[in-house]
Each structure stands twice: as structure tokens, then as C-alpha cells.
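Q: Predict the bound structure with zinc ion.
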Amino acid sequence: MTPSWKSPREGAWAVAEAETRYGPQVALVIVDLQNDFADPSGSLSVRGGAAIVPLVNVEIERALAAGSAVAYTQDWHPAHTPHFAQDGGMWPVHCVGETWGAQLHPDLSVRGPVVRKGIHGEDGYSGFSMRNPSGGMSVPTELDSTLAQGGVRRLVVCGLATDYCVKATALDGVRLGYETAVLLAAVRAVDLKAGDGEAALDGLAAAGVILVGAREAAS
Ligand SMILES: [Zn+2]
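A: Predicted complex:
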């Protein structure tokens, strides 16, 4: 039975019991749950990143049991890209294609398509779009077309990191017309500056993203 809700914006589909969160029109999108972000020895390790993997696996089982699609994003860079500090960007070298750091966390259950971003040196954070390093033009990944083909209307987003790729992916989800929810217990922030993660959640809420769970769960 469809849960009763007054308007999509109120997001009751997402915040009701976890068992009612998923269905055929919902996709669970797992952002960048890769060694360089999730493992404590990763080059861009996010505090608490590995701790969300078991929670994400539970969500994957719930989603699949309810007929939802499950999709993964994977940061996948060449050895040199304007995304990296050594090449003029802002990040330490991370998630270089074919390296351990780029691999999805070994404990993560992989049960759906994996969408790679940055393969050709693109910059940007969203699972849906990348920025061409020359000219800054936005180029789509195949995530939107993959989900749209499956009739997906709603997204449940989790993974790493709250203040970059989770935020950008969820904002793009709203922009593309998906009702979008973020699972606070299954995201963690880089917090380059203290409070970045909190500010990201504020921005997501202001954009109409449904925040599922307690704010404290996201830190
Ligand atoms: Zn990256």
C-alpha cells in the first residue's frame, strides 16, 4: 500500500518507516564509497566513512527487496587532472583509476550499475554531471539516463562525502526533477572547514531535499 502523504515536498515516502521508503520508482544512489574516501588509510579519508558501509548494505537489501534500483557512483581520475592540487586544483591525489584507492570499499555490496565520473580528467562532484576542465562546461554522466530508463522518480542518496559529492548529487537530483532524499545516518562530511557538513545539509534542505533521520546522525 502507498503510504499516505500530503505533498511530495513533505517527503513522507522517505521519512516514514524504512520499509516503506523503497518501491519500483525509487532508486538508491550510493555515492563514492571508495577506499580513498572510506578507508582510514585512504588519501582523502573521511572520518567515520567506513562505519556507514554496514548501514548502506542494509539499505541496499531493503531497496532490492522492494523492487528499487540500486546505483553506485565512483570517482575515477587519471593520474593528472585539474581536480588535483598537484595540477592546480584543490584535492590531494585520490581515486586514480585502476588503483586500490579508486576501488569500491571491499565490504560494500555491489548489486547494480556503477557510474564512473572524472574518467577523462573532468572536475566536479555530482554523480549526474561533471565539469569539462577546459571551458567549465557541464557534461552529463549516464546516471540520469540509466535511472530514467527504469522509470525512477525518487532518489535516496547516501555515501561520501556530505559536503561535496553527496550534496552535488542530491542537488542535481532535484534539478533533474527527482524527489530526492538523503539518509543522514549513511553520509559523512569531509569538513575541510568545521561546519561544512552542517552547512551542506542546510543547503540541501533549502533546495527541497528531504533529510531522513537526525542531523547528529550525519557526523
Ligand atoms: Zn575526485
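A: Helices lie at 12-15, 35-38, 53-65, 143-149, 162-175, 196-206.
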